[in-house]
Amino acid sequence: MTDRKLLPGKFVWFELVSRDAKKAQAFYGEVLGWKVKPFPMGDFTYEMIFAGETMIGGYAAPRNDRQPSHWISYVSVEDVDATAKAAAANGGKVIEAPYDIPGVGRTARIADPQGAELSPFKNAMGDPADALPPAGGWAWNELHTTDVTKALQFYEKVLGFSSRAMDMGPGGTYHILSRGGVERGGVTSYLPSGVPPHWLPYVAVEDADATIARARRLGATIPFGPEDIVGVGRIGALQDPTGAALAIIKPLPLEKQR
């Protein structure tokens, strides 16, 4: 028996949608130390991502030849069907209708009114307990959007997030998303020209500078960083050789975080 329980609002899984999964796997193996293990799931095999001994995500094929490589975030919910209906009722879209993953749980794919996609997910076994992320594990998730106010309203109604504003000085206002008193992600208006609204996952690393240097050497584009964020840590972002964007962070010790 498992003693795991659902933690609604927690981002519990991340999936790389890519037309060249093998190239991505080789890249992340070198840059973040991730391993890949195949898991048979009915008529197909799903390739799982491991950070050390912890299973943290997987690889999936794109829906069509035009879909670019990207990361998709899975967020824990109590009712996938109700979440999908709420998304549609509040200006979003249902990209993939709710469906069951045998032996795993139930999920769907939705987009907010600005077009950022994510997957509501109910794990049949409950969610992993909150803990400090190990090196190579997920540390944060951040929405980059064209309309912060509408996004905050949408995620409050659809996922039950509350928010608080944080003054980042020259970086403007950053919004922290919480549920049940636990901080789960952030929202920013920072969005480079030509880049559509999206969720940007963060991976914890031991050395931000070395990680970015490895990524660059192995063919990644570096949109920004590494740079220090006061009260948070040292961060950077990369676009892997298949085109998917990801961020990395060397967090400050807890006692030094704001």
Offer a concise description of the structure.
The protein has 258 residues and is of the alpha+beta class. Helix content is 17%, strand content 45%.
Describe the structure.
There is one protein chain. With 258 residues, the protein is α+β, with helices and mostly antiparallel strands. It folds into 2 domains: 11-123, Roll (2,3-Dihydroxybiphenyl 1,2-Dioxygenase, domain 1); 138-256, 2,3-Dihydroxybiphenyl 1,2-Dioxygenase, domain 1 (Roll). Helices cover 17% and strands 45% of the residues. The chain has 4 helices and 16 strands. An 8-stranded mixed sheet has the order 2-3-4-1-5-8-7-6, with helices on one face. An 8-stranded mixed sheet has the order 10-11-12-9-13-16-15-14. Helix 1 packs antiparallel against helix 4 and helix 2 (80-89) runs antiparallel to helix 3 (148-159). It is globular. The model has no long low-confidence stretch (mean pLDDT 92).
Quickly list its features:
single chain; 258 residues; alpha+beta; 2,3-Dihydroxybiphenyl 1,2-Dioxygenase, domain 1; 2 domains; eight-stranded mixed beta sheet; globular
Secondary structure: elements and pairs:
Blueprint: E1 11-17, H1 21-32, E2 35-41, E3 44-51, E4 54-60, E5 70-76, H2 80-89, E6 93-101, E7 105-111, E8 117-123, E9 138-144, H3 148-159, E10 162-167, E11 173-179, E12 182-188, E13 198-204, H4 208-217, E14 221-229, E15 233-239, E16 245-251
Parallel strand pairs: 1-4, 5-8, 9-12, 13-16
Antiparallel strand pairs: 1-5, 2-3, 3-4, 6-7, 7-8, 9-13, 10-11, 11-12, 14-15, 15-16
